Amino acid sequence: MVDRLANSEANSKRIGLVESCFGAAGQPLAIPGRVLIGEGVLTKLCRKKPKARQFFLFNDILVYGNIVIQKKKYNKQHIIPLEGVTIDTVPDDGELRNGWLIKTPTKSFAVYAATATEKSEWMNHIGKCVRELLQKSGKSPTGEHAAVWVPDSEATVCMRCKKVKFTPVSRRHHCRKCGYVVCGPCSEKKFLLPSQSSKPVRVCEHCYGMLSGSLGRQSESMSRSGANFNNTLSDDDDDDDSSD
Q1: Where is the composition biased (Polar residues) (predicted)?
Q2: How far is CA 36 from CA 52, 142, 215, in A?
Q3: For 185-244, where are the alpha helices, taking DSSP H only?
């Protein structure tokens, strides 16, 4: 069915409408073989609070953005290649129901549908698209994913030292490796996580210790084999704790 729709006029028009809703700031989405499978509003669990986002599922990518005017205008377009996606169901928790995790090497987050049926349909369609892409490419499923950030509201004190209480002065930070909400003193270190950034990013003391130990063992092993290994930590501040 997807192959039949790929070159259809109806599919081209649908993709064209999505592009027009994102305007000039959005990336072009129409390429040969791409099919728009479905779309809808999902609640994305962001750092500050859950927020409504418009999602579009294509046969090879997942696109989402902020809703400016429903069905007319969206901004802050995000494009996620489906080959690197893994999905896992999330248990219902109070008002947060019908959720699942979208995990990728660069970013992972939870989304929630309005009904259990909608959740099932989204997960089934995403899973099918991922399986078909991997089958065509012959690649294996991605084994490593970025951590899902713990929402700010779930941590009143540092999740590592358990001592520092968060205030307007004592800010919350997120470890890019484990996703924990941590205080400044517990997250002074940075480490290069190539799948997430081209420069070192903030990590907590616990994760820095594990990463440094692993790096040291890898460096020693490569040194024995005659290979050169260089790791440079940047002094640039990468505290990009955005609300989304």
Answers
A1: 215-233
A2: 20, 23, 42
A3: 205-224
Q: Centre a 10 Å sphere on the Cβ of residue 202 and count the other Cβ atoms it contains.
A: 23
Return the exposure string of 76-99: e unless at least 16 CB atoms fall within 10 Å of the residue's CB, then b.
Answer: ebbebebbbbbbeebeeeeeebbb
Strands (E), the chain: 36-45, 50-58, 61-69, 73-81, 86-90, 99-103, 108-112, 173-174, 181-182, 190-191, 201-202
How big is the CA angle at 238 (ends 202 and 204), to the nearest 5 degrees? 10
For residue 183, give the nearest of 200, 206, 199, 214 by alpha carbon.
206
**Shortest CA distance to 241 belongs to which of 163, 183, 159?**
183
Give dist(CA 152, CA 137) in Å, integer. Answer: 39
CB-count exposure of residue 121 (10 Å: 0-12, 13-18, 19+): middle
**Residues 170 and 157: beta-carbon distance below 8 Å:** no
Residue type, 68: V
- Could you give the domains of the chain? 2-137 (2.30.29.30), 152-224 (3.30.40.10)
DSSP for 41-90?
EEEEE-SSSEEEEEEEEESSEEEEEEEEETTTEEEEEEEEEGGG-EEEEE
Residue 120: CA atoms inside 13 Å, Cβ hemisphere, count? 3
Q: What is the pLDDT of residues 123-174, one digit of tens each?
A: 999 999 999 999 999 888 877 899 999 999 999 999 999 999 999 999 999 9
Report the predicted TM-score, pTM, of the whole model to 2 decimal places.
0.82
